Every structure is written in structure tokens, then in C-alpha cells.
Amino acid sequence: MPDADYKAFRTAIDRGAVEAELVDKLAELERRETRAAEGLRVLTEPGPYQEGSPHSWVRDSLVTVDPELRGYMAARSGFSDMSDRAVEQRLAQHSKDVRRALANGSKYGTAIDRLLKDSTRNEAPELHRKRHREARSSLTTGGGTTASASGGGAAAFVAPAFLMDQWAAYRSPYRAFADQCNSTVPLPEFGLEVYLPTVTSGSSVTTQTEASGVSEGDPVATFASSPIVTKAGQITVSQQFLDRAGSGISGDRVLFQQIQEQLHAQVDSYAIAQAIASAATVTNSSAFALTTASGVGGFVGDLKKAKSKLTDTAGVRLRGTHLFTTGDFADYVQAYADAQGRPVFSPCLDDNQLPLRAQGDPNGEGWTGYVIAGLAHFADDNILPSGSNTQLIVCRPSTILQLEGAPIPYLFTPTQAQSLEAVLGVRCYVATLARYASGVATISGSAYAASTFA
Question: Which residue in 54, 131, 249, 347 is deepest, having the highest Cβ count within 10 Å?
Fold first, then answer.
């Protein structure tokens, strides 16, 4: 065989051997993926309270807590089997899902652990840690293997994953201010007070001439603090709603979304109150005007004055970036026209950039789409009036820390079974701390009479 032919033959043989080896490796990988997929199907078998389920975690939990409701529920359960055995089996399976999620450290498990930490929060850190360990142990060491009271089935009463996902991702359109604040710092795991080191006076730097001493001025530091407060919302649910809200999961979702809206509004109101507690003020007692002719004044002049208060305050020196007003005021000024009927302000394309569009708020519901006097304009109807006057807020919200804990659900059965009503609620711990207390300015006065903008 000529050398050239032999070389081609050997090359073909070698290539065939390599391809055969690759085929074997691919086959082995396919077998591994198949086994993994089969195991995954076992691990991710739909739980009793997943999306689309006809069962209701709320209804099952209430029946378990208050046995007097069982007979009535069983007769009006629709597509969900409300027999004692069926309810206990569903809650027992849910308990196993909770324990597995905690053990695996999944997204759901992390949310559960955060919920446990916040539900056991105490002013004394050591006691808080002890309670957290005990609460976690009650879910992971047999306490959740059964839904029966005798079995200590605490895990059965942990909210399902789809509700926790809703809580984690849902942003009420009413909390524009809180959503723009700095939420990158997590709420401390333990305790009921937040402390932040704050420098209240600077050092001294001057020109040092030959043989002269160096100027010395030691900075002074202290701690700014904020209590961690509880915000809670609850609703009373009639048996008729539980009967007629559609499938169980959709009914649960409607209930908890409603509570979340109330809770978010309260959190936002608290954040606003904390942020403006030591704010600088701009007062305008003249008639409202957008601007003044041949000078600085009116609404735009007030914005500039507020911005100057932030930049001129020693130790603060912030450039304001945001303007927060009520929705009525925002619509009023954005509709302002000149003598020829042309709009004074034009909307700005934000290119969907953060922080104008907050996490969980992809539609930018708080963001008005306008920039006025260099300030991104947000509408927030949780801003309370100052007396009978509208209040405007100018600040740099990235300097305001917004710390929120995990939402904690609770259920109360009716005190009398015949009333057929239950109370569902959600509470959470929150703290808002402005790193620069005087780095916020408010604008108000009779020029901003609320009746003008209604």
C-alpha cells in the first residue's frame, strides 16, 4: 500500500476511534441526565398547594385549627376533598415540602428561614437566636411530619411557596418612595434597633508652611438609630368568599394580594415619615405659580431652593435627584401650558433604567416620566399634607436605607363557628434610616393648597 494511502487509512481509523469514544461519552451523559431528570421529577412533584391547585391552604389550615368548621367545609368544598383524611394528607405533604426546602436551602427554603427569623425577633439578640433555632428545629426534626396538632405539625402552617413568591416580588403602586430608597442593606437578623455610624464634624486640612505645625481637627462620630417597627395588615374573610372565590389557590392569592397592598402602603407611609422627620423646609405663602417673570420664583424656584438646602448644609452636601409629590399634584403641573397652549414640560425617555424603575415595578408605576429642575418626578399618594397644604419632598433616596424583613402570615379562626368568618393577616418588621437626616427637604405653604390640585 502506498504511503499516502496508508496515511489516509490510519487517519480514518483514528478518526473513527475518536468518534466512537465520543458516542460512548455522549451516551453516558444522556443516561446521567435521564437519571437526574427522573430524580428531579420526584423532587419537584407538584405539591398540594402549587399554582393551579383546586385546594386552599387557607381553608385547610382553618379547618385544622378549628375542628368545628370541618363539617360545614366538607359540604361546601367544591372540587377539593375536605374530609379529615384528605386535609391531613395535604398538610402532611406540604410539611415535607417545607422541610425539604429548608434542608436544601432553595429559594423557598431561604424565604422560610427569613420568615422564622422575623417571627421570633426579640430585643435581646441571644434570646432571638435561641428562639430562631427552636423554631427551625420544630420544622426540621419531626415537628413537620404530620399536620395533626398532636404531632406538632408546625411546618404545615408555613405559607406555600407561590404565596411567598408573591410577597417577595409584588410591589404595590402606592409605595413609590420606599421603592426608590436604598434597599441593598438587609434588615439585621436579630434585635429591634438599627444603628448607623455617623460622622457629625469633619477633620481639619489647611496649607502647611515650612516649619509650621499641621492643622489638626479630629472628626466626631456618633450613632444614628432607628427602631425596627412592626407593620401589619389583616382582613376578615367570610365563608362565602372561601366558597366562591374559584379554585383554592386563586382564592388564596386574591386574599393575600389585598393584604399586601395594605401592608405596602403602611410601609411606604412609615418610610416617608422617617425620612422627613428632620428635613429642611421651604415655605411659599404666595399664590401658586409655575415660575415668575424675569426672576427666580414659583414652583420651579422652590425646587431650586430645596436643592440648595441639601447642597449647602455642612456635612451633607448632597445633590438632590428625586421629587416626590401626590399624584394629583403631578398631573396638575405636568398639564401646565404656556400662553400659546403649549405644554411647559415634556416627558423624558428613561430607557427603562434603574433606579427610575424599581425592582418589582417594571412598569415604573411611581415614575411619572418627567424630569423637572433636574429632579426625577415620582407620584406617591402616601405623602400626607402639611396642614391643608400639599407637601413635596426633594431628596436623594439612595442615601436613605430601607430595611424590611420577611412578611409573616397569620390566621385567626372565628371566635364563634357559626359566624363563618376568619381573619387573615400579614405582618413584617421594617426600619427606615436616613444616613443624612437633613439631606431631605420638604416644600409646602399656602401656595400649595391641596384644594388647588384636587
Answer: 249
Cβ-based neighbours of 47, under 8 Å, separated by 6 or more = 53, 93, 94, 97, 160, 161
The closest of 255, 393, 275 to 324, measured between CA atoms, is: 393
CA distance 56 to 242: 9
pLDDT tens-digit profile of 40-95? 444 455 678 777 777 878 778 777 766 666 655 555 555 677 777 888 888 888 88
Q: What is the DSSP string of 307-333?
A: HHHHHHSTTT-PPP-EEEE-HHHHHHH
DSSP codes joined into one string, 251-306: HHHHHHHHHHHHHHHHHHHHHHHHHTTT-EEEE--S---S--TTSS-HHHHHHHHH
Q: Where are the beta strands (DSSP E) in 383-420?
A: 392-395, 400-404, 408-412
3-class state of residue 132 by DSSP = helix
CA–CA separation, 332 and 284 (whole Å): 18
110: helix, strand or coil: helix
Whole-number Å distance between alpha carbons of 3 and 439: 86
Rounded distance between C-alpha atoms, residue 423 and residue 255, angstroms: 11
Q: Is 417 exposed, middle or buried (0-12, 13-18, 19+ CB in 10 A)?
A: middle
C-alpha cell at 237: 374573610
* DSSP, res 426: E
CA–CA separation, 388 and 141 (whole Å): 58
Q: Which residues, at least 6 apart from 48, have a Cβ–Cβ distance to it below 8 Å? A: 55, 89, 90, 91, 93, 94
Would you tell me the crossing angle of helices 107-119 and 125-140 to the nearest 10 degrees? 130
Beta bridge partners of 444: 283
- Among 61, 49, 77, smallest CA distance to 253 is for 49
CA distance 348 to 2: 77
Quick one: pLDDT at residue 354?
A: 57
Q: What residue ranges of the chain have pLDDT lower than 50?
A: 38-43, 143-152, 167-171, 245-247, 360, 416-417
Coil, strand or helix at 225: strand
* Grid coordinates given for 231: 407593620
Query: Which residues have CB under 8 Å from 260's CB, separation 6+?
Result: 166, 167, 170, 172, 233, 407, 426
List the one residue out of 74, 130, 405 whose CA is nearest residue 242.
74
Q: Which residue has the cell 405663602?
A: 285
